[in-house]
Amino acid sequence: MPKIFTPTNQIRLTNVAVVRLKKTGKRFEIACYRNKVVSWRNNVETDIDEVLQTHTIFNNVSKGQAAKKEDIIKAFGDKEDTEICREILSKGELQVSDKERQSQIDSQFKEVATEVSNRCVNPELNRPYPIAVIEKAMKNAHYSVKPHQSIKQQAMTVIKLLKESIPIERAQMKMKISFLNKNIDKFKKELKKVSSVKIETETVDEESVTLIFLIDPGHYKEVEEMAKKQSKGSSILEVISYKEVAVGNEYL
Question: If you average pLDDT over every residue of the chain, what do you get?
Fold first, then answer.
Protein backbone atom coordinates (compact mmCIF):
# COMPACT_ATOMS: atom_id res chain seq x y z
CA MET A 1 0.00 0.00 0.00
CA PRO A 2 1.59 3.35 -1.03
CA LYS A 3 1.88 6.11 1.54
CA ILE A 4 -1.00 8.59 1.41
CA PHE A 5 -0.83 12.34 1.97
CA THR A 6 -3.54 14.95 2.50
CA PRO A 7 -3.12 17.91 0.13
CA THR A 8 -3.10 20.59 2.83
CA ASN A 9 -1.00 19.65 5.82
CA GLN A 10 0.77 16.57 4.43
CA ILE A 11 -0.32 14.28 7.25
CA ARG A 12 1.15 10.89 6.43
CA LEU A 13 -1.37 8.07 6.47
CA THR A 14 -0.05 4.52 6.53
CA ASN A 15 -1.64 1.10 7.09
CA VAL A 16 -4.83 2.55 5.60
CA ALA A 17 -8.19 0.86 5.23
CA VAL A 18 -10.69 2.88 3.22
CA VAL A 19 -14.45 2.86 3.83
CA ARG A 20 -16.52 4.33 0.99
CA LEU A 21 -20.11 5.55 0.87
CA LYS A 22 -21.89 6.97 -2.19
CA LYS A 23 -24.59 9.51 -1.44
CA THR A 24 -26.35 12.22 -3.50
CA GLY A 25 -24.27 11.13 -6.47
CA LYS A 26 -20.97 11.80 -4.69
CA ARG A 27 -18.33 9.50 -3.24
CA PHE A 28 -17.24 9.98 0.37
CA GLU A 29 -14.36 8.10 1.97
CA ILE A 30 -12.73 7.90 5.38
CA ALA A 31 -9.28 6.59 6.30
CA CYS A 32 -9.30 3.92 9.00
CA TYR A 33 -6.77 1.65 10.65
CA ARG A 34 -6.69 -1.78 9.07
CA ASN A 35 -8.38 -4.52 11.15
CA LYS A 36 -10.28 -1.91 13.20
CA VAL A 37 -13.28 -1.51 10.91
CA VAL A 38 -14.49 -5.07 11.48
CA SER A 39 -13.92 -4.72 15.24
CA TRP A 40 -16.03 -1.55 15.20
CA ARG A 41 -18.85 -3.19 13.27
CA ASN A 42 -18.82 -6.16 15.66
CA ASN A 43 -18.97 -3.78 18.65
CA VAL A 44 -15.60 -5.01 19.88
CA GLU A 45 -14.03 -1.58 19.41
CA THR A 46 -16.14 1.31 20.73
CA ASP A 47 -13.68 4.21 20.58
CA ILE A 48 -13.99 5.79 17.15
CA ASP A 49 -10.61 7.50 17.56
CA GLU A 50 -9.05 4.03 17.59
CA VAL A 51 -10.69 3.32 14.24
CA LEU A 52 -10.18 6.58 12.32
CA GLN A 53 -6.77 7.77 11.19
CA THR A 54 -8.26 11.24 10.76
CA HIS A 55 -11.76 12.71 11.03
CA THR A 56 -11.32 14.26 7.58
CA ILE A 57 -13.90 13.22 5.01
CA PHE A 58 -12.38 12.58 1.58
CA ASN A 59 -13.70 12.01 -1.90
CA ASN A 60 -10.48 10.09 -2.60
CA VAL A 61 -8.29 8.93 0.28
CA SER A 62 -5.51 7.51 -1.88
CA LYS A 63 -5.03 10.88 -3.60
CA GLY A 64 -5.51 12.84 -0.39
CA GLN A 65 -8.45 14.78 -1.85
CA ALA A 66 -10.79 16.10 0.83
CA ALA A 67 -14.50 16.26 0.02
CA LYS A 68 -15.94 19.72 -0.69
CA LYS A 69 -17.85 21.28 2.17
CA GLU A 70 -20.93 21.93 0.03
CA ASP A 71 -21.03 18.28 -1.08
CA ILE A 72 -20.81 17.11 2.54
CA ILE A 73 -23.65 19.43 3.63
CA LYS A 74 -25.83 18.33 0.72
CA ALA A 75 -25.33 14.66 1.56
CA PHE A 76 -25.26 14.69 5.36
CA GLY A 77 -26.79 18.01 6.41
CA ASP A 78 -25.17 19.97 9.23
CA LYS A 79 -23.85 16.93 11.13
CA GLU A 80 -20.43 17.13 12.74
CA ASP A 81 -17.59 15.33 10.97
CA THR A 82 -17.42 12.62 13.64
CA GLU A 83 -21.11 11.79 13.20
CA ILE A 84 -20.64 11.65 9.43
CA CYS A 85 -17.70 9.29 9.93
CA ARG A 86 -19.92 7.07 12.08
CA GLU A 87 -22.50 6.92 9.30
CA ILE A 88 -19.87 6.06 6.70
CA LEU A 89 -18.43 3.40 9.00
CA SER A 90 -21.88 1.90 9.52
CA LYS A 91 -23.23 2.02 5.97
CA GLY A 92 -20.13 2.24 3.79
CA GLU A 93 -18.24 -0.46 1.94
CA LEU A 94 -14.78 -1.48 3.11
CA GLN A 95 -12.43 -1.25 0.15
CA VAL A 96 -9.92 -4.06 -0.26
CA SER A 97 -7.49 -4.97 -3.01
CA ASP A 98 -8.10 -7.95 -5.28
CA LYS A 99 -5.30 -9.80 -3.52
CA GLU A 100 -6.77 -9.11 -0.07
CA ARG A 101 -10.25 -10.08 -1.24
CA GLN A 102 -9.01 -13.41 -2.63
CA SER A 103 -7.10 -14.06 0.58
CA GLN A 104 -10.26 -13.44 2.61
CA ILE A 105 -12.28 -15.74 0.34
CA ASP A 106 -9.67 -18.51 0.60
CA SER A 107 -9.58 -18.14 4.39
CA GLN A 108 -13.39 -18.26 4.68
CA PHE A 109 -13.54 -21.28 2.37
CA LYS A 110 -11.21 -23.18 4.69
CA GLU A 111 -13.13 -22.04 7.79
CA VAL A 112 -16.38 -23.34 6.31
CA ALA A 113 -14.73 -26.66 5.41
CA THR A 114 -13.34 -26.92 8.96
CA GLU A 115 -16.77 -26.25 10.46
CA VAL A 116 -18.34 -28.93 8.26
CA SER A 117 -15.60 -31.40 9.18
CA ASN A 118 -16.12 -30.67 12.89
CA ARG A 119 -19.88 -31.18 12.67
CA CYS A 120 -20.16 -34.17 10.36
CA VAL A 121 -19.16 -37.77 9.78
CA ASN A 122 -19.15 -40.31 7.01
CA PRO A 123 -22.19 -42.32 8.18
CA GLU A 124 -20.83 -45.53 6.65
CA LEU A 125 -17.81 -45.39 8.98
CA ASN A 126 -19.05 -42.94 11.62
CA ARG A 127 -15.77 -41.09 11.25
CA PRO A 128 -15.14 -37.41 10.52
CA TYR A 129 -13.94 -36.39 7.08
CA PRO A 130 -10.48 -34.75 6.82
CA ILE A 131 -10.77 -31.05 6.06
CA ALA A 132 -8.96 -31.54 2.74
CA VAL A 133 -11.65 -33.99 1.61
CA ILE A 134 -14.41 -31.51 2.49
CA GLU A 135 -12.60 -28.72 0.65
CA LYS A 136 -12.28 -30.89 -2.46
CA ALA A 137 -15.97 -31.83 -2.30
CA MET A 138 -16.91 -28.14 -1.93
CA LYS A 139 -14.85 -27.26 -5.00
CA ASN A 140 -16.37 -30.11 -7.00
CA ALA A 141 -19.81 -28.82 -5.99
CA HIS A 142 -18.75 -25.32 -7.13
CA TYR A 143 -19.54 -23.77 -3.76
CA SER A 144 -18.72 -20.05 -3.45
CA VAL A 145 -18.33 -18.48 -0.02
CA LYS A 146 -20.78 -15.79 1.09
CA PRO A 147 -18.68 -13.03 2.73
CA HIS A 148 -21.65 -11.58 4.62
CA GLN A 149 -22.92 -14.89 6.00
CA SER A 150 -21.63 -16.45 9.21
CA ILE A 151 -19.40 -19.53 8.97
CA LYS A 152 -22.07 -21.59 10.77
CA GLN A 153 -24.80 -20.58 8.29
CA GLN A 154 -22.56 -21.43 5.36
CA ALA A 155 -21.60 -24.77 6.91
CA MET A 156 -25.27 -25.75 7.20
CA THR A 157 -25.76 -24.88 3.51
CA VAL A 158 -22.65 -26.85 2.51
CA ILE A 159 -23.79 -29.96 4.43
CA LYS A 160 -27.04 -30.02 2.44
CA LEU A 161 -25.12 -29.42 -0.79
CA LEU A 162 -22.56 -32.17 -0.18
CA LYS A 163 -25.25 -34.77 0.54
CA GLU A 164 -25.83 -34.79 -3.21
CA SER A 165 -22.30 -36.02 -3.90
CA ILE A 166 -20.84 -37.79 -0.83
CA PRO A 167 -22.25 -39.74 2.14
CA ILE A 168 -22.29 -37.16 4.92
CA GLU A 169 -24.42 -36.64 8.03
CA ARG A 170 -24.29 -34.54 11.16
CA ALA A 171 -22.38 -36.30 13.94
CA GLN A 172 -24.96 -37.46 16.44
CA MET A 173 -25.35 -36.15 19.98
CA LYS A 174 -25.61 -38.68 22.82
CA MET A 175 -28.21 -37.81 25.45
CA LYS A 176 -29.65 -39.32 28.61
CA ILE A 177 -33.11 -38.77 30.03
CA SER A 178 -34.48 -40.06 33.32
CA PHE A 179 -38.23 -40.09 33.99
CA LEU A 180 -38.88 -40.02 37.72
CA ASN A 181 -42.50 -41.15 37.38
CA LYS A 182 -41.60 -44.03 35.04
CA ASN A 183 -44.25 -42.79 32.59
CA ILE A 184 -41.89 -42.89 29.63
CA ASP A 185 -43.95 -44.71 27.01
CA LYS A 186 -45.46 -41.57 25.43
CA PHE A 187 -42.04 -39.94 25.29
CA LYS A 188 -40.52 -43.01 23.58
CA LYS A 189 -43.34 -43.02 21.04
CA GLU A 190 -42.77 -39.34 20.21
CA LEU A 191 -38.99 -39.74 20.25
CA LYS A 192 -39.13 -42.45 17.61
CA LYS A 193 -40.81 -39.96 15.26
CA VAL A 194 -37.70 -37.78 15.37
CA SER A 195 -35.46 -38.30 12.33
CA SER A 196 -32.41 -40.55 12.86
CA VAL A 197 -32.96 -41.14 16.57
CA LYS A 198 -31.42 -44.32 18.00
CA ILE A 199 -32.19 -45.60 21.49
CA GLU A 200 -29.12 -47.36 22.84
CA THR A 201 -30.19 -48.47 26.32
CA GLU A 202 -33.21 -48.43 28.62
CA THR A 203 -32.65 -48.95 32.33
CA VAL A 204 -35.38 -49.35 34.97
CA ASP A 205 -34.77 -49.02 38.70
CA GLU A 206 -36.94 -48.44 41.75
CA GLU A 207 -37.31 -44.69 41.23
CA SER A 208 -36.95 -43.98 37.53
CA VAL A 209 -36.59 -45.11 33.94
CA THR A 210 -33.48 -43.97 32.06
CA LEU A 211 -32.94 -43.84 28.30
CA ILE A 212 -29.64 -43.24 26.52
CA PHE A 213 -30.11 -42.29 22.88
CA LEU A 214 -28.48 -40.63 19.88
CA ILE A 215 -30.03 -37.76 17.90
CA ASP A 216 -29.07 -35.25 15.25
CA PRO A 217 -28.00 -32.08 17.15
CA GLY A 218 -30.51 -30.12 15.10
CA HIS A 219 -33.33 -31.87 17.01
CA TYR A 220 -32.07 -30.95 20.50
CA LYS A 221 -34.66 -28.21 21.16
CA GLU A 222 -37.44 -30.42 19.83
CA VAL A 223 -36.48 -33.26 22.18
CA GLU A 224 -36.11 -30.86 25.11
CA GLU A 225 -39.64 -29.50 24.61
CA MET A 226 -40.96 -33.03 24.13
CA ALA A 227 -39.42 -34.13 27.42
CA LYS A 228 -40.95 -31.21 29.32
CA LYS A 229 -44.37 -31.85 27.83
CA GLN A 230 -44.48 -35.63 28.27
CA SER A 231 -42.95 -35.76 31.75
CA LYS A 232 -44.70 -32.65 33.09
CA GLY A 233 -41.43 -31.51 34.59
CA SER A 234 -40.52 -34.82 36.19
CA SER A 235 -37.65 -35.72 33.84
CA ILE A 236 -33.93 -34.96 33.86
CA LEU A 237 -32.36 -34.45 30.41
CA GLU A 238 -28.57 -34.47 30.03
CA VAL A 239 -26.08 -34.25 27.15
CA ILE A 240 -23.52 -37.04 27.49
CA SER A 241 -21.51 -35.98 24.43
CA TYR A 242 -22.00 -33.43 21.68
CA LYS A 243 -20.42 -35.58 18.97
CA GLU A 244 -20.21 -39.36 18.76
CA VAL A 245 -17.51 -40.48 16.31
CA ALA A 246 -15.45 -43.62 15.82
CA VAL A 247 -11.68 -43.37 16.25
CA GLY A 248 -9.72 -46.56 15.64
CA ASN A 249 -11.80 -49.32 17.17
CA GLU A 250 -13.36 -47.07 19.80
CA TYR A 251 -15.90 -44.29 20.03
CA LEU A 252 -15.31 -40.78 21.28
Answer: 85
CA dihedral 120, 123, 128, 133 (to 10 degrees): -90
**Residue among 113, 56, 63 nearest 88 (CA):** 56
92 CB-near residues (< 8 Å, 6+ apart) = 19, 20, 21, 28, 29, 30
- Sequence-separated contacts (24+) of 139-142 with Cβ below 8 Å: 140/165, 141/165
CA distances from 33 to 19, 45, 62, 66, 114 (A): 10, 12, 14, 18, 29
- C-alpha dist (Å) from residue 100 to 56, 106, 143: 25, 10, 20
CA distance 131 to 161: 16
pLDDT digits (tens, 9 = 90+) for 213-248: 988 888 888 888 888 887 777 788 888 887 765 554
Per CATH, the number for 172-251 is 3.30.70.240
Report pLDDT for 1: 47
Residues 222 and 195 sit within 8 Å (Cβ to Cβ):
no
Quick one: which of 212, 218, 203, 207 has its CA closest to 176?
A: 212
Considering the entire predicted model, what is its pTM? 0.57
d(CA 101, CA 180): 57
| CATH number for domain 4-95, candidates 3.40.190.10, 3.30.1250.10, 3.30.70.270, 3.40.50.620 | 3.30.1250.10
Q: What is the pLDDT of residues 172-227, one digit of tens each?
A: 889 998 887 666 778 888 888 876 788 888 888 877 888 899 888 888 888 888 88
Q: Which residue has the higher pLDDT, 242 or 154?
A: 154
